[in-house]
Amino acid sequence: MTGRVLPFIGSKMAWAGGPKTMVATCALAPNASPWTLDGTNTWLLHAPGASSAIIVDPGPSDEGHLREVVEQVAAREARITAILLTHGHVDHSEGARRLSEITGAPVRAVDPMHRHGGEGLAAGDVVTAGELELRVIVTPGHSSDSVCFLLPDEGSLLTGDTVLGRGTTVVAWPDGRLSEYLVSLANLRDLTERADVKRILPGHGPILEAPGAILTSYLEHRMARLDDVRDAVAGGAGSTADVVAIAYANTPRELWPAAELSVRAQLEYLRDGGEIGAEIC
């Protein structure tokens, strides 16, 4: 059935920054929008008593936000020794270079364009700050350079935009690929079981408990959206815009530009599998 309303994924409660786990504090960036939910979650990772800290996704180049991050770390009598990016989209990465200038900490990212004085990030890499250990999990799909970070000691998984705290994410075609995204979601679901992951710390929105169930919901949602797209094409949709209007009829119109990116990724996936022709572009 096209235009179906799927079960809500994530909490509807308001989200604010502050300490969230023993080592993770969220500094919520002031860039709330329909695309970024409450704003970008800048994650400050610091083991109690340690002299060093890691920042994940500095967010926008907002001087007040970046200074707040620095002050929160300084209040713990620590310094920032690494700045990591889950991916290069501007709402996560724009402030990275400025934060590096303020602190002297290197910026590490998969994409060389977003590195500043630091190395890349690859599967199996481990970043440390005192006794804190952060493992790099490569998860392309939302974007080609997306990664997640696992805090094995406390069972937290930082997911950037691969998994959001509310709703589901866009597959940012053409850089993002649905085939890769489905594999990444399945790998993360397996990881939650192997590594006893207890919670997801997303790039936007609130913390998610029961990560295995959340990832299963994400996979089911993607399969349902593919059914919607198939139905729209079979029903005579002649353009990407037509598919969006049918398959995302219950999505707010302000999000249709994002939905169009996902639809293009879905159409590509179906074409690659031989299920539809190339007539819709």
Describe the structure in brief.
The chain is of the alpha+beta class. It has helices at residues 63-74, 90-93, 96-103, 178-194, 211-234, 240-247, 256-272, and strands at 18-19, 24-28, 41-45, 52-56, 79-84, 107-108, 126-129, 132-138, 147-151, 156-160, 199-202, 208-209.
Please give a structural write-up:
The protein is α+β, with helices and mostly antiparallel strands and 281 residues long. It is 32% helix and 19% strand. It has one domain: 4-Layer Sandwich (Metallo-beta-lactamase, Chain A). The protein contains seven helices and twelve strands. The strands form two sheets. Strands 1-2-3-4-5-6 form a six-stranded mixed beta sheet. The protein has a six-stranded mixed beta sheet with strand order 7-8-9-10-11-12, with no helix packed on it. Helix 4 links the parallel strand 10 and strand 11 (199-202). Helix 4 runs antiparallel to helix 5 (211-234), helix 5 (211-234) crosses helix 7 (256-272) and helix 6 (240-247) packs across helix 7 (256-272). The protein is elongated. The relative contact order is 0.14. The model is unreliable at 1-8 (pLDDT under 50).
- Provide the helix percentage: 25-40%
Strand content: 15-25%
Strand numbers in spatial order across the main sheet: 1-2-3-4-5-6
Mean pLDDT: 93
Q: How would you describe the shape?
A: elongated
| C-alpha Rg (nearest Å) | 19 Å
- Unreliable stretches, pLDDT < 50, 5 or more residues? 1-8
Order of helices and strands: EEEEHEHHEEEEEHEEHHH
CATH class: Alpha Beta
N→C terminal distance: 23 Å
Number of helices: 7
Q: What would you say the CATH architecture is?
A: 4-Layer Sandwich
CATH topology: Metallo-beta-lactamase, Chain A
CATH superfamily: Ribonuclease Z/Hydroxyacylglutathione hydrolase-like
Q: How does the major sheet shape up? A: 6 strands, mixed
Task: Give the class from helix and strand content and strand pairing.
Answer: alpha+beta
Count of spatially separate domains = 1
